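Table S2 (text version). Query chain:
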Amino acid sequence: MKKLRGNIQYLPPPTHINVNHRAKAICVLFMMVISVFVFVLLSGSGIVPGASPACEIRVEAFMDAINRTLTTEGSFIDRDGNALTTGAGPGRPAMLVYPEAFGFLLGYNSTRFARYGLRHRLDWYLNHLLDDYYIGSTVQLTLSTALQLKAYELIGDTAGSVIIMENASGKLLALASRATIPFNPNLLDDNMATYNAYEGFFLPNGWTERTPPGSTFKLITAAAALEHGFSEEELRFYDMGSINIPGGSVINNFNNNRFGQITMERALMFSVNTYFANLALELGTTRLDTTMHQFMLNSTIELDFATITSAFDWGNGSLFYLAQTGFGQGRTQMTPLHLAMVTQSIANDGTMMTPYVIQEITTGNGTVVRSGSPTVLTETISPYTAQALQAMMVQAAHSYGLTYAQFGTVGAKTGTAELGTGYNQVYLVVFTDNHTIVMSRNYTTGTSSQLIQPMMALLTFMSR
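Corresponding structure-token output:
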């Protein structure tokens, strides 16, 4: 206490808390609790953007599932407007008109097993870009139904593929593939367990499965020697049926055949392993590697229907692997579609076109929202080298019985790749004036000669 003015004492006012302030504090605290609760509730529901990504994904999936119950899947048609799928009504997957011949390309759209093939890649157009009646867009492909059905028929009862592509444009006319057993997306629920029992069943053998290219690769080795200016004398080789590789390895010809003095043209015609093993050694890794990259090996190639890759390496500089690479064994792996692109670029004077299968996509009101057109992918080799290889392939085709009198201009090369399991991967690549065709069969005990008769049948069909 303070004493002021005589005996009068003044006491300080008593300490107290304003009731209104206390009420306000309680209200603020209460509102904070409510706000936190509401935020947690809303963020957990996915309503607050970015608050809970995992929840947003669940909400989006839920809304997508509801949308699909109301939607009729869009249709596929071929280049002539013929139906390849037919809508089955809201919430039900479309049905394939030719399920086995088009199965691996078009794939499936399933509530149980999600989506695969073009129906996966084009899902937004088929099930989300809708008209006023909740019907998806129409996808027109570049394929010919007649050619696709014939190609599938000629694959036979084994795994394999047939690819038909226009030389000048890269447009695909057929892309047929068969696994160990037929694939029918219309019966997916009944047969999925059977399909899954086969390892690699859903690797479409016509475009994404990589295997050694066998003797078809000799075209690339030959191109490398021509591109790097080997003289006519340097392109001659005396074949004794085998070649010793520094380090102790030996490479033999098929059936140990001996050809004596031989040119590149005859070496391609008779597919002489020793010739191309020696040519690879003469080229060395740097020059052969350069040409392989020109043909886009070791590249990832994005197409409108698939992503394809290839691979090779030199085995730590081993001369044996270099020699093996020269004739298509070694550590090189390519897809049948990539072999079609190599062949097409040779037929097209060195210009590799991008393969494409989507002609156009149209909404219900007739608006074209996407279309395909010819696109140059890369320049692989000079026109001079391409034309030299064309002439050699024509001579090889004649030796196989693919004559001008029957089929007009035809160039060809066979290839048998040993898989090391007692089975082979076999190829026959062909070009005509307008088309490139690749046939392959997987895991066969035969050789590429088994493809010549089916190829004749296909060329005859195409010439009608």
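Notes on Table S2: The chain has two domains: 68-142, 149-355+374-462. The two ends are 122 Å apart (CA to CA).
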